[in-house]
Design brief:
Length: 538
């Protein structure tokens, strides 16, 4: 099929299945109110008048057994209570918070952090109510707590069970969701039986612990924006209606620690949208995405998703420019500059959903002609200092401190060699200038949200140009102020044109979208207006 045919995959009617937006909020408020009412009715302490300082009637329904610590059942119950100690569960959830964040599941990491906060909250509530634990032979156990309401183990295990199911859903495995749900309920029940059997909690303590844990679990779902389990199954049923739409994913394997996770996440969203199975195309060190983009065009897909950094985005977009094929971004690099400038979320799940349900926008690309050839860029290009910084940036350091690695490289190149060049803008007379850097931008914002070109937009048909020759500390300070404030500073040439020609007096290093491209004496940039179709938020 022709690459220039209309992209069926981005029709405005492609809407995600209806979500039960308020389920988490209703459940959170419901469980929280239930916990407050239950606490008032059943928990001796500051909330109950002194005349009512006696065991709640409900506890008489399940009297505490006289369990011997050295019995087989007693030892088993104590071992289970130790294994599911709230401190251990808190540590495990905290570890998953870090994992979710580094795996670019930002909303999930927020939800898990809120869930983890339920454990110290339980401790503070128990300390305030000061309801002593029932006396038992296990009072000196490491798993025993001084105060029993709400029960710490049940609160923690309820949150852990929710985390188990949520993580299973994050991996998009139906079998894992079902198994996690069963295991979660079983763990809560086993913990409740164990706490009661050891004499560490009464029935009212256990119910209070569960209500508090359930309230925090649903608060995490509500604030984090993750669909409730019920919603996911509703969406799965709705997704069985199929269409002929199909996407291709061009991905850089070096940008993902768990490629199988990426595949599962894409497959789940594609299935929920009713699209056909995805075409997967992997880049190589020798080909960052050009031939893969051509293969996607030949396959007649409706959408090309690019999962990688700025280099992968440039390689793919250079092949899609001039066609009607839309490109969607799944940011996975250090800078992700195009994604940041187009308000594409850096969260992987959110970016995948946007790719399938966003709207098309035509943006400019810029064709650069240099001594040894011709390339396109979509974000920025430059000669001199910026290229030297890119070349000096340690790739291993980028993985550790990300954009901070560029700052380290900038310090290493703090005393750059100036060069002289003739600058020609459109049909204006040439101007000869000395500089340490000539930077051209199709967009205005660089790493960390700093604005380098205040007027630049990728749809204005212009390329912005910054010429800098800082000779003193104050000049560097002005350049830094310009970047931080987004305001033009005296002493720096900042202009724009449709065509820019830079002719240097010697070969100068240059870069395209953050990738060093060698050295050149001549660099000509010409805007290809509205050449590339990108998926952006509605």
């Amino acid at each position: 099929m022709s690459a220039s045919r209309p992209a069926r995959g981005i029709a405005p009617s492609s809407r995600p299945p209806l979500r039960l937006k308020y389920v988490e909020a209703i459940l959170c408020v419901g469980f929280a109110l239930a916990f407050i009412v239950w606490t008032y009715l059943s928990a001796p302490g500051p909330l109950v008048p002194c005349a009512e300082q006696h065991p709640p009637a409900i506890d008489a329904l399940l009297p505490i057994p006289d369990t011997q610590p050295r019995s087989v059942a007693g030892q088993f119950a104590e071992a289970f209570a130790t294994f599911t100690h709230p401190i251990i569960i808190l540590g495990l959830i905290a570890a998953w918070v870090v994992y979710a964040y580094t795996a670019r599941m930002r909303r999930l990491s927020v939800s898990l952090a809120i869930a983890a906060a339920g454990i110290p909250t339980q401790f503070l509530i128990a300390l305030h109510l000061a309801h002593p634990a029932p006396g038992s032979a296990f009072s000196d156990s490491i798993a025993a707590f001084t105060y029993s309401y709400p029960n710490a183990h049940i609160t923690a295990i309820t949150l852990a069970s929710w985390v188990l199911v949520t993580l299973a859903r994050a991996h998009h495995r139906s079998a894992m969701v079902a198994a996690g749900t069963v295991l979660g309920y079983a763990a809560v029940a086993a913990s409740a039986v164990g706490q009661w059997y050891m004499g560490q909690a009464t029935l009212s303590d256990l119910i209070g612990g569960f209500l508090l844990g359930a309230a925090f679990a649903n608060l995490a779902l509500w604030v984090g924006g993750i669909d409730a389990i019920l919603t996911s199954w509703v969406n799965r049923r709705l997704s069985r209606s199929s269409s002929e739409k199909r996407a291709a994913v061009i991905y850089n394997p070096t940008k993902f620690d768990d490629l199988s996770l990426l595949r599962r996440r894409v497959a789940a969203e594609v299935r929920a949208a009713g699209w056909r199975p995805t075409v997967w195309l992997e880049t190589t060190p020798d080909d960052p995405g050009r031939s893969m983009a051509r293969r996607a065009l030949e396959a007649g897909v409706d959408l090309v998703m690019v999962a990688g950094g700025d280099g992968t985005v440039r390689a793919v977009s250079s092949q899609l420019a001039g066609t009607d094929m839309p490109m969607a971004l799944i940011p996975a690099g250090t800078g992700n500059l195009l994604a940041r400038n187009l308000s594409v979320p850096l969260d992987t799940d959110a970016a995948i959903r946007l790719a399938l349900h966003g709207s098309r926008k035509a943006i400019d690309m810029v064709t650069c002609t240099f001594d040894d050839g011709q390339e396109r860029f979509v974000v920025m290009a430059g000669m001199g200092l910026d290229a030297q910084i890119m070349e000096s940036t340690d790739s291993g350091l980028k993985k550790v401190i990300r954009s901070g690695a560029y700052a380290v490289a900038a310090v290493q190149n703090a005393v750059p060699d100036p060069f002289t060049a003739t600058i020609t803008l459109d049909d204006a007379p040439p101007v000869r200038r000395q500089m340490v850097m000539a930077l051209m931008g199709n967009v205005g914002t660089i790493t960390a949200g700093m604005t380098l070109f205040p007027r630049a937009t990728p749809t204005d048909g212009m390329v912005d140009l910054l010429l800098a020759n800082p000779g003193k500390v104050v000049d560097w300070a002005r350049l830094g102020a310009q970047i931080l404030t987004g305001q033009e500073m005296e002493g720096f040439t900042l202009t724009r044109a449709r065509t820019v020609l830079i002719e240097a007096d010697r070969p100068v290093p240059f870069e395209l979208d953050g990738d060093t491209a060698g050295s050149t004496r001549t660099l000509r940039a010409e805007v290809d207006q509205a050449a590339l179709h990108v998926i952006v938020p509605r």
